[in-house]
Amino acid sequence: MFRLNELSAAVSFNNSDLMKYKFFVKKRSFENIVNRKDTEKLLSKDRIFVHINDLYGAPPDWSRPQGFISLSQFIIGQQVSLASAKAHFDKLNNYLNGFTPENILELGDHEMRDCQITRQKAEYLRALSSAVIKGDIDLEKLSELTDMQIRSQLKSIKGIGDWTADIYLMFCLRSKDIFPIGDIAVVNTVKELTDAKSKPGINLIAENWKPLRSLAVYFLWHYYLSKRNRTFDI
Predict the structure, then answer these.
(1) How distant, in Å, are the alpha carbons of 86, 117, 124, 209 from that of 93?
(2) Up-side HSE of residue 53: CA atoms within 13 Å toward CB?
(3) Which terminus in the chain has less CB density within 10 A, N or C?
(4) How far from chain centre, in Å, is Cα 4?
């Protein structure tokens, strides 16, 4: 392992090379998370995915478009059931004359309540709307950044934590190695299918699924929903 001064002595950059190095980000492929090649690799890593595949087949390749609407949906979906999240979003969307940051900021507290949006989530939606309007975040350009940079930008907005950032990275930006340890369905399914009893234990098991943890999560969700005869309508 190089120390910083050793690395500086070993590698010499001119200014133009340094600029290229500093701002280089691998172009995002936007490949499907669920595909045959990656599924075969994941099934070879852990037999719980063979078990899920035998029971229910491969999961759907769930996705959402990038942007304000999808991120707002994920905020509304925090800590509620899928059915409730969809109902609340639909009610708000039908009330608005266009789901835009400007229209969100025009709503009063009573209008938010009438659309079944809690005071806390109304505050989060307003924070996101303000950030977009002010240019504090450009959702259309997030795909040009690394996953770490994207997570940092998203979490700078009040109300967006790791779970919301994880879901946006997977569904909208098609990041292939995300593991949302804050997702109850994922945690409960891993506990059911493995010997893990705690989140640290679950994270340790999930290390074996790298670099395909997003696909692993899709299989876990697929098992959770299929076993309960539910669908993921996004």
Answers:
(1) 10, 11, 16, 37
(2) 16
(3) N
(4) 34
Cβ of 2: how many Cβ atoms within 10 Å?
Answer: 10
Residue 17 — very low, low, confident or very high, per pLDDT cuts 50/70/90? Answer: very low
Cα–Cα distances (Å) from 129 to 20, 75, 122, 159, in that order, read: 33, 12, 10, 12
The Cα 78–Cα 9 span in angstroms is 49
- Distance CA(41)–CA(116), nearest Å, equals 43
Residue type, 75: I
CB 43 within 8 A of CB 53: yes
For 46, 48, 171, 176, 233, the CA distances from 52, given in Å and listed in that order, are: 11, 6, 21, 19, 20
Phi, psi angle pair for 124, to nearest 5° = -65, -40
Q: 99 in helix, strand or coil?
A: coil
Using alpha carbons, select from 178, 177, 185, 132 the residue that is nearest to residue 154.
Answer: 132
DSSP state of 230: -
pTM summary value: 0.87
For the record, the structure tokens of 174 come out as 């098609």
56-97 pLDDT tens trace: 999 999 999 999 999 999 999 999 999 999 999 999 999 999
Choose among 75, 45, 76, 72: nearest CA to 219.
45
Residue 43 corresponds to which amino acid?
L
